[in-house]
Every structure is written in structure tokens, then in C-alpha cells.
Design brief:
Layout (H helix, E strand, L loop, with lengths): L4 H5 L9 H7 L11 H10 L1 H14 L10 H20 L9 H23 L6 H6 L6 H27 L11 H25 L3 H14 L8 H6 L2 H8 L2 H13 L12 H21 L9
Length: about 300
């Protein structure tokens, strides 16, 4: 019969214990080990002040080297809207097919930009802050969440310009404008979920970030940002049209248009639009958060 491990090795007491047994005896834990999901949520909530401060700092520094500074937060989507109006509104003749085309177009560009920028920010959340990730111990989800919050702050800053443009074309504020609050809350949840997903994917495969602009451009064309998708959907197979109608980007754009543009009536919204918007928001946020959390131990290593 083999001798006990301690005696056969010539060790006694603690010298006979394995590293795992010693760690268990003294309550030691692996550095950077993934906590349970409830504990991870608590850690993230405890760092809410860091998340908001980091988002604000990123927003302030974004155009710090440009002479016009923060004005570019407004100019970028407005210039995009001007280009789209010239190409799709004038050259392609879409401006006559949609009532209040300029408010309709500008609203679509602003809301789409919110989602697209949140996704692109997520691709840089880990890789763009790798020094911070390797130097400090904190829940890594703080980074994509704070960058999604930065994009929300930028959108809120830009909404003043959007409101002025819309009012210049006769769309005066009304009770329906209050629908902006739940619409943007749901879109923010959806964007944050996608930002978390992209943060994990690009942390392992950074080259995905190079492909995302092409994917986002295709998604934008499918979301009715520059033209009315309604007539095209009526020509398609019923099932395909229904699936395209559930496009989350198009859903959130339509909700904001419905809230701010009087000529955009409820009959232009897909059925059960609020349920669809809420479903996308909660599923994307929950799935994205869990997906990101499962790789918590891997970020910044290798």
C-alpha cells in the first residue's frame, strides 16, 4: 500500500498541501477570476460614478484638437444629412415621395448615428483601453457601457439642433414629443447590448473592427434612413417584408419620427411597435451583458 503523500514526499504539515489546498485554507482567490453574475452586477453598480465620469471625459476630449471643438458633435450628422439629401432627395428624387422629407431625413440620420457610433465605440472598448485593462482590476463591462453612455450624451447634446431644424419646417413641439423618452431609453439599452457584444468579439479578433463599417453601411440602407421603405416592402414576399419590418434600427428610427413629425402617422409603424422595441432592448442588453461577462477573465491577456 502506498505511503501517505506527506510521508512519501518527506513533508509534514502545510508543506504536504497542494497549492489549491493552501489557497482554500487561507481563503485565497485567483486574481482576476470571474465573479458570479449577481456579484458582477454589484461591482458594476459600485463603479457607476467612474462610468459616467469616463463617458463625460471621452466626450469632452473627442474633438479637443479641432478648432471648432464640440461643434463637430452637431456638424457631423448635419453634414451627413446634407449629403444624403443631395444624393437621395434631389438626385434620386425621393424628397417628393415622403412628406416633410428634410425633418424625416435629419431625424433618421441622427438616430441611426447614435446606434452606429455605439457599435463602433464597442469595437474599441477593450482594444483601445488595453493599458487600463491590464493595469487595474475592475469590471471590464464598465468600458463598453461608458462608451455607449458617451454616445447617448452626444445624442442628447445634438437633440437641441434636431429640434430646431424640425421646428424650422413647421413641426412644433407637442405632447407626442414626450415619447422620445421611452424610445431613446429602449434604444440606449439595445445599443449598450450590442456594444458589449462587439467589445468581446474585437477583444479576441480585432480585425472585425475593420469590417464593421461595411456591415453598418449595409444595415443603414436596410433601415430606411434616407428613403421610405414602405413601398418597397409591399413589393416583397410577405414573410421577408415582416422580417425587415422588425429591423431594430428601423423600429427606433420610426418611433422617434412618430414622436416628432406630425405627418408620420401611426399607420406607418409596424404592428406592436413598442413591444418589438422593448423586446429588442431587453434581449440585446441581457444577452450582450451575459456574453461579455462570460469572458471577463480573458480581457487583457495574451
Amino acid at each position: 500500500m502506498p505511503a501517505p503523500r506527506a510521508q512519501s514526499a518527506g513533508y509534514t504539515g502545510e508543506q504536504a498541501l497542494t497549492p489549491a489546498e493552501l489557497a482554500a485554507k487561507y481563503g485565497l482567490k485567483v486574481s482576476g477570476a470571474r465573479p458570479t453574475l449577481p456579484e458582477y452586477v454589484r461591482q458594476l453598480w459600485a463603479r457607476r460614478h467612474f462610468i459616467t465620469a469616463f463617458a463625460t471625459a471621452k466626450l469632452t476630449a473627442q474633438y479637443s484638437e479641432a478648432k471648432l471643438g464640440q461643434i463637430w458633435q452637431l456638424m457631423t450628422p448635419l453634414l451627413n444629412a446634407a449629403v444624403y439629401y443631395f444624393i437621395f432627395g434631389i438626385l434620386m428624387g425621393n424628397k417628393g415621395s415622403t412628406p416633410d422629407y428634410i425633418p424625416w431625413l435629419v431625424t433618421g440620420v441622427f438616430i441611426w448615428t447614435f446606434t452606429a457610433n455605439s457599435i463602433m465605440a464597442g469595437t474599441r472598448a477593450i482594444t483601445g483601453n488595453i493599458g487600463l485593462v491590464r493595469a487595474l482590476h475592475f469590471p471590464r463591462a464598465s468600458l463598453p457601457v461608458s462608451l455607449a453612455l458617451q454616445q447617448l450624451q452626444q445624442l442628447l447634446f445634438s437633440l437641441a439642433a434636431l429640434a430646431i431644424i424640425i421646428m424650422c419646417f413647421g413641426q412644433l413641439p407637442g405632447v407626442s414629443w414626450l415619447l422620445l423618452i421611452p424610445a431613446l431609453v429602449l434604444q440606449s439599452m439595445f445599443n449598450t447590448g450590442l456594444s458589449l457584444v462587439m467589445a468581446r468579439i474585437t477583444a479576441k479578433t480585432p480585425d472585425v473592427a475593420q469590417v464593421m463599417p461595411f456591415i453598418l453601411r449595409t444595415w443603414m440602407y436596410m433601415s430606411g434612413v434616407m428613403w421610405n421603405l414602405g413601398p418597397q416592402l409591399k413589393k416583397m414576399n410577405h414573410l421577408v417584408a415582416q422580417l425587415l419590418g422588425l429591423n431594430p434600427a428601423a423600429v427606433y428610427i420610426d418611433l422617434v419620427r412618430f414622436a416628432m413629425i406630425k405627418s408620420f402617422h401611426a399607420n406607418k409603424l409596424p404592428p406592436h411597435v413598442w413591444a418589438v422595441a422593448a423586446g429588442w432592448a431587453f434581449v440585446a442588453l441581457a444577452a450582450g451583458f451575459i456574453y461579455f461577462w462570460k469572458a471577463e477573465e480573458q480581457y487583457g491577456r495574451g
